[in-house]
Automatic annotation (TrEMBL):
<dbReference type="InterPro" id="IPR036388">
    <property type="entry name" value="WH-like_DNA-bd_sf"/>
</dbReference>
<protein>
    <submittedName>
        <fullName>MarR family winged helix-turn-helix transcriptional regulator</fullName>
    </submittedName>
</protein>
<dbReference type="InterPro" id="IPR036390">
    <property type="entry name" value="WH_DNA-bd_sf"/>
</dbReference>
<dbReference type="InterPro" id="IPR039422">
    <property type="entry name" value="MarR/SlyA-like"/>
</dbReference>
<feature type="domain" description="HTH marR-type">
    <location>
        <begin position="5"/>
        <end position="139"/>
    </location>
</feature>
<dbReference type="Pfam" id="PF12802">
    <property type="entry name" value="MarR_2"/>
</dbReference>
<dbReference type="InterPro" id="IPR000835">
    <property type="entry name" value="HTH_MarR-typ"/>
</dbReference>
Amino acid sequence: MQSNRRNLPQLLGDARRWFEEGLLSALEAAGAMPVTPTQAQLFAVLDDRGTTVSELARRMGVTRQTAHQAVHGLIAAGLLDQTPDPASARRRLIRRTESGERTHGQAVAILERLEEQLADRIGRETVAALRTALETPWGPPPSPAPDGR
């Protein structure tokens, strides 16, 4: 008999989609440039100093091609730009434009409101426990045992 219990990765994926859908709909309602979930994720992993496309892909867990497409869509929208990497003539750094900084600021504020709404729905203690569990270092993923388990 198969259990209907969903595994933790499925539940975490649903939670992520809840925040993404709330964020994207709130940004759209505020008149911000529409972005895809992949582009929103890219914004979340982009650091202020600038980040290469390869590093963005690694942080997002996607292919370099997927990250490259998301970057170029955001460049075309005027939210990101590319600059030469002072450490390497072959690499380019991806950074937010002024408009991208404004949009990022809006997104941060929206995510804070969504977290407050979640706390109102499921309880502040539950949200605090969830945050604590997710902020606790998990260590590297386990390696398979020598017997394949």
